[in-house]
Amino acid sequence: MEKIKVIITDSQKAEKIPTGMRLLIRRCCNAVLKMENLTGPADVCVTFVDNERIRELNKTHRNVDSVTDVLSFPLGENGEYDLHPETGAKQLGDIVICVPRAVEQAERFGHSLRRELGYLTVHSMLHLLGYDHEAGGLEAVRMREKEETVMIMLGLPRDESYATEQ
């Protein structure tokens, strides 16, 4: 696999992004692409937002008027992606993560924010590559298995127990 460019933007003020999270996000993106054997350079954008912004995006793009944890906006279909005109990199799409919701879910599920943000990134990357769980069934099971495989590769298995980040 060649280089992936992960552009990360923090567009929220609700929660401070702990040190090391940007590196984790990049590692998650790379791990998914490695597992999926995606060849050639690729670009992905990750944006951290607050509850209000993710609710607006969810309502606009999915017609669901509620806060959610992550949204994926794939730019490709059936393994075909637009190419960046200057670099030739595959444009995979955008990942939008609601940081306050991630903090809340990490507390609710009893694991670290590191694991939660990692999971949301891996989950969303799989959506960018065409995986979907919405209809349930075998496709949902396949996606969940891939998520856990990557999380284990990254040292963030379901039962991990890191100290709470301050």
How would you describe this structure to a colleague?
The structure is a single chain. This protein is α/β, with parallel strands linked by helices and 166 residues long. It has a single domain (4-153), classed as Collagenase (Catalytic Domain) (3-Layer(aba) Sandwich). It is 43% helix and 19% strand. The chain is built from 5 helices and 5 strands; from the N terminus they run E-H-E-H-E-E-E-H-H-H. Strands 1, 2, 3, 4 and 5 form a 5-stranded mixed beta sheet that branches.
Keywords:
Collagenase (Catalytic Domain); disordered C terminus; alpha/beta; 166 residues; five-stranded mixed beta sheet
Global outline: globular
How would a crystallographer describe the biggest sheet?
Answer: 5 strands, mixed
> Which parts are unreliable, with pLDDT below 50 for 5 consecutive residues or more?
160-166
Provide the domain count. 1
State the helical fraction: 40-55%
The helix/strand series, from N terminus to C terminus, equals EHEHEEEHHH
CATH structural class: Alpha Beta
Query: Architecture, according to CATH?
Result: 3-Layer(aba) Sandwich
Rg computed from alpha carbons, rounded to a whole number of angstroms: 15 Å
What is the typical, i.e. mean, pLDDT?
A: 91
The total beta strand count reads 5
CATH superfamily: Metalloproteases ("zincins"), catalytic domain
How far apart lie the N and C ends? 35 Å
Q: Remind me, CATH topology?
A: Collagenase (Catalytic Domain)
Structural class: alpha/beta
Q: What is the number of helical segments per DSSP (H or I, 4+ residues)?
A: 5
Name the beta content range: 15-25%
